Amino acid sequence: MIFNGRSHKFGRDIDTDIIIPATYLVTFDPKELAKHCMEPLAPNFADNIEKGDIIVAEENFGCGSSREHAPIAIKGAGISCVLAKSFARIFYRNAINTALPILECAEAVDGISDGDDVRIDTEKGKIENLSTGITWQAKPFPSFIMEIINEDGLIGYTKKRVENRDV
Amino acid sequence: MMTITEKIIAAHAGLDKVSPGELVMVDIDLALANDITAPGAIKEFEKIGVEGVFDKKKVVLVPDHFAPNRDVDSAEQCKYVREFARDREVENYFEVGQMGIEHVLLPEKGLVIPGDLVIGADSHTCTYGALGAFSTGMGSTDLAAAFATGDTWLKVPQSIKFNIDGKRKEWVSGKDIILYIIGKIGVDGALYKAMEFTGDTIEGLSMDSRFSICNMAIEAGGKNGIIAVDDRTREYEDGRIDRAYVEYYSDPDAEYADVHNYKAEDIELQVAFPHLPSNTKGISEVGNIPIDQVVIGSCTNGRIEDLREAAKILDGKKVEKNLRVIVIPATQKIYQQAMSEGIIDIFIEAGTAVSTPTCGPCLGGHMGILAAKERCVATTNRNFRGRMGHTDSEVYLSGPAVAAASAITGKITGPADL
Ligand code: SF4
């Protein structure tokens, strides 16, 4: 998949209580969750998102709780992809399982400023800063993750396993 | 040559050996979700189209976060989970009145035993590593798939060894040790890794303190925390469980990504300042910080040892008059035990509010939400911005001794300064 959008930059250790505060965890509706996405740091974050925009963050993005509402809120806000220097482990899993594309590439994060136009090719791991013309190569996904993504997330993948009696 | 974590994963993957970085499918012994994460898991589970859950005994559902129901929305969520448990005959569903905070309840009920591999849709599932089990938190969708298949994929983590030797200072508990470690290595100091705790200080700790330590492995980014089985673990499990268990130990030549050695003598009572668990200071460096609220409870420090420590300090004393102090025993059994020991009387005489088990204020749910600019000392595990209420409120993390002493003075205080 190829995404094209504006960069929204965040610092390190963006935790799940920032991405979606716990008090709003009474729904899984992406549109409802999106209203409060990033609220402690950037109130009305979703209002400033154009479809396709990209979050660019420093280390340990998504640390904290296991809430899957976090990637859902981000997707609901219209974000197409998250690029970070590193992700917290559970967030990483949750993003893949709910089909929110994520990429790790420290050099690209350093080379992209807030508001830059960015193009990301998730299949190839290619990241392009259209505002400066610089490109980077991120680590491609391991094959089993590609399989999960190709089945539209873990549920599709599991469904297929169940159908094939591979459990 | 494998670590304890690698051995447990290998055994559950049906392999003789696994190495860090390897991706494996593992059978699970228990799959856990709560009132916040279960609804998502159930919704996804229904899409898979299997007859029922993989094993009615191995799925655990605990409504503890916004229960007893905080509002209509949380009531609907709890109802959804309750009805699923009933329809699918999930044996380990714990209703209000029998429930407790999940990570305290499961070991108490003997549902997790040494050598188990447990996954939970809650980040503090890593708590059970204190029993010599491998346990780790995942998301709702992971749990949905596991409910259907009884297995999950794992990437074998590298291990870091934390060796702590020496005699603990007075009042220092497991919470202070783990806060000290997180202060040293940072909130991503153990990202994706297994945190293995060893040394004679760890061996000398109660099970309650060991649970506190493994509980906060996630606060350093860890995949799991783990402490090998010893006599104290065996004594804890004695009479509690009806399954045989396997004890795993790291080989002397097992490989570690890193080894950290600490001396218990260097660890004083700890306080983590806002807004990260790694912002720690020793109690002697805290300075004058007035507070508005104290919370003693949570899956980190709502156990009987924590309540006893707090009661020792509050016995015959009064809570500072401008302060709200909330005490939440983590399970019904702990509540009862505290009552029979006269601990609840001490708390009420001192002027604290004692609540039925719930996560409540720990995640800013209910039972003690903070207003703007308010400060709270809490024995919980996270002090992220807005975690306990308003975005401009502040949470200071500590063990029960500092929390109880602070309740008396109205500012952050160690018991030695009373
Ligand atoms: S007590 Fe707090 S940290 Fe523990 S399970 Fe409940 S909300 Fe999570």
List descriptors.
heterodimer, A: 167 residues, alpha/beta, seven-stranded mixed sheet, 7 helices, globular, B: 418 residues, Aconitase, domain 3, 2 domains, five-stranded parallel sheet, 18 strands, 31% helix, binds iron/sulfur cluster
Short recap of the structure:
The complex is a heterodimer of chains A (167) and B (418). With 167 residues, chain A is of the alpha/beta class.
Structural notes for this entry:
By secondary structure, chain A is α/β, with parallel strands linked by helices. Chain A has seven helices and seven strands. In chain A, helix 4 (89-97) links the parallel strand 3 and strand 4. In chain A, helix 6 crosses helix 7 (154-163). The longest helix of chain A is centred in the last third of the chain and has 10 residues, at 154-163. The radius of gyration of chain A is 16 Å and the shape is globular. The model of chain A has no long low-confidence stretch (mean pLDDT 91). The relative contact order of chain B is 0.13. In chain B, 31% of the residues lie in helices and 18% in strands. In chain B, helix 6 packs parallel to helix 8 (207-215). By secondary structure, chain B is α/β, with parallel strands linked by helices. In chain B, strands 4-3-2-5-6 form a five-stranded parallel sheet. In chain B, strands 16-15-14-17-18 form a five-stranded parallel sheet, covered by helices on one side. Chain B folds into two domains: 4-262, Aconitase, domain 3 (2-Layer Sandwich); 271-417, Aconitase, domain 3 (2-Layer Sandwich), CATH 3.30.499.10. Chain B has helices at 4-13, 38-48, 72-87, 102-108, 140-149, 174-185, 200-203, 207-215, 231-237, 298-301, 304-314, 332-340, 343-350, 400-409; strands at 23-27, 30-34, 59-62, 92-93, 117-120, 134-137, 151-155, 159-165, 194-198, 224-226, 258-263, 270-272, 280-282, 293-296, 324-327, 353-354, 375-378, 394-397. The structure holds iron/sulfur cluster.
